Amino acid sequence: MTTLTAGGALLVRLKAIGVDYVFCNSGTDFPPIIEGLAEAAAKGIALPTAVVIPHESAAMGMAHGYYLATGRSQAVIAHTNVGLANCAIGAINAAVERVPVLLFSGRTPTTEKDRFGTRTVPIGWGQEMRDQTALVREAAKWDYELRFPEQAAEIVDRAWAIANSTPRGPVYVSLPREVLCEPAPADDLDAPPRMQPSVTHPNPKLVAEAARLLAEAENPVIFAQHGTGDAGAFEALSALADDWGIPVCQYWAVALAMPTDHPMAAEANPAKLIERADAILVLDALAPWSPQLHRPKADCTIVQIGQDPLSARTPVRNFRSDLSIACDVADGIRALKAEMDALRLGRADRVALRREAVAAENAKARETMLATAEAGQSGMMTKDWVSLCLSRALQGIDATVLSELGCPMAPMSLDHHRAWYQEPHAGGLGWSFPAALGMQLADRDRLIVATMGDGSYMFSNPVACHQVAEALELPVLVVVVNNAEWGAVRQSVLGVYPGGYAARSNAMPLTQLSPVPDFVKVAEASRAWARRVEDGPALGAALAEALDHVRNKRGLALLDVRVRP
């Protein structure tokens, strides 16, 4: 029987199950990982590409973005407890957004002498924990500590299958150094996975009932928050909404579910829609509306469709669900459309009147919003103007925009299922920049635009992200929408205390980020193209120049755009 170090066997198995990249931040627990990489390479064994990521939060963000672009789980390997602690925010983001990251970290040796791989430096004692997994256990679907070298391959298979079972999410495995140093069987490491994910499918009876409820409703409404899952479902939802004259509200959307200029695309404020709704379809939404502000009528029927329509991992989430359908949202949309297509006969006149009214209301709301965005170029720019200007710059380009408290979705013209992603509802900041790098790594020919607030840019460990972009030649466009404050915090204070002392103060406490660092110089330190824009009418030309650099010179470009608080 041929053997590899257990560290090498684990990496080889990751490649066999479809992992393209292992995002690593190495430490003193990595010798068997590094030796395994070298040994497998010397023996001509296929491996995933292992890349050095200078900060673990960036590694998690890149794995997250790669999955959004490809639908394939990637791996992150961190350094013992300290590296795992830096992964925790990314793990929380992945858990809330159901992204199946395969997270590993070393574990400090448990022996002090007389065993290969034992402790050799003082941090071997300093990094020991009674329960290292506790750092990410609440975010992980499943966790394990590798105990024997012969387990390496089968544990990889189990981790992958569980992570990709619905509801999907990250898993965690700790890797003690002594175990990784031991020889493991190398035969059949390229065999098919020993187990497959368990995936739920829409229940036909429940789908038929949901279709009947929506078809018979006078004022049905659809809420979509996490997109549609794939291009086919994106088209199906757009057609379903148009066929039946049903408004689609993308309240706090994380991914695009419908073109922003579709006649049935409603404004993001759901108040009017909820007030009159007699049937509501919720598509994969953690919080489809705010119960404090929006309360459906008692006789309104609510249907929820998603991987976990009741969001079981969230302790408090008491949105009513009269009909709960567990499935991937793409499958649910397609099944629902098929059922509703069969119910259209005899309803054409009623639907036509509703469609006309909904389309007129949506068109008026969009016209008003775009006029407001256009006016935002005067004086110090608004975020809405930046968003509108970016949308115009991207016209005709097949691009993906990520926003982390950056450019709002509403003023943009977006028309495909991969057009838009917003920060996870977990709120783990520093996501947009590394997620964009992961997307770009997955699709080097696609234009990826990462927009973010100035606080989010600082949270992303920008020096680490710029280093990765230069090292891997990832030509992302970064737009920092810079208002020199924690804007989301200020808005939250105003929402709770609209007439309070903080609202009346000249500088609201604990929200200011002045003096703002020179982000242009941060980017230029890694030889990126970077400019500051303070004049609204000049933004279009600056975006055109930045896009030219990204697309033709294949380098990262950054715009530091100053906007109103």
Can you characterise this structure?
It is a single chain. By secondary structure, the chain is of the alpha/beta class. It has three domains: about 5-185, Thiamin diphosphate (ThDP)-binding fold, Pyr/PP domains (Rossmann fold), CATH 3.40.50; about 205-365, Rossmann fold (3-Layer(aba) Sandwich), CATH 3.40.50; about 375-560, Thiamin diphosphate (ThDP)-binding fold, Pyr/PP domains (Rossmann fold, 3-Layer(aba) Sandwich), CATH 3.40.50.970. Helices cover about 40% and strands about 15% of the residues. The chain contains 20 helices and 19 strands. The strands form four sheets. A six-stranded parallel beta sheet has the order 3-2-4-5-7-6, with helices on both faces. The protein has a six-stranded parallel beta sheet with strand order 15-14-16-17-19-18, with helices on both faces. The chain has a five-stranded parallel beta sheet with strand order 10-9-11-12-13, covered by helices on one side. Helix 9 (about 230-245) links the parallel strand 9 (about 220-225) and strand 10 (about 250). Helix 3 (about 55-70) crosses helix 14 (about 430-440) and helix 8 (about 205-215) crosses helix 11. It is globular, with a radius of gyration of 25 Å. The N and C termini lie far apart (about 65 Å). The relative contact order is 0.10.
* Number of distinct beta strands: 19
Mean pLDDT reading: 94
Number of spatially distinct domains: 3
User: Please, how many helices?
Assistant: 20
Task: Give the proportion of residues in helices.
Answer: 25-40%
Stretches with pLDDT under 50, minimum 5 residues: none
User: Quick one: biggest sheet?
Assistant: 6 strands, parallel
Gyration radius, in Å: 25 Å
- Superfamily (CATH H level) name of the largest domain: Thiamin diphosphate (ThDP)-binding fold, Pyr/PP domains
The CATH C-level class name of the largest domain: Alpha Beta
Structural class: alpha/beta
The CATH topology of the largest domain turns out to be: Rossmann fold
Query: Span between N and C termini?
Result: 66 Å
CATH second-level architecture of the largest domain: 3-Layer(aba) Sandwich
**Spatial shape:** globular
What is the percentage of strand-forming residues? 15-25%
InterPro entries: DHS-like_NAD/FAD-binding_dom, THDP-binding, Thiamin_PyroP_enz_cen_dom, Thiamin_PyroP_enz_TPP-bd_dom, TPP_enz, TPP_enzyme_TPP-bd
Domain Thiamine pyrophosphate enzyme N-terminal TPP-binding: 5-133
Keywords: Thiamine pyrophosphate
Domain Thiamine pyrophosphate enzyme TPP-binding: 414-561
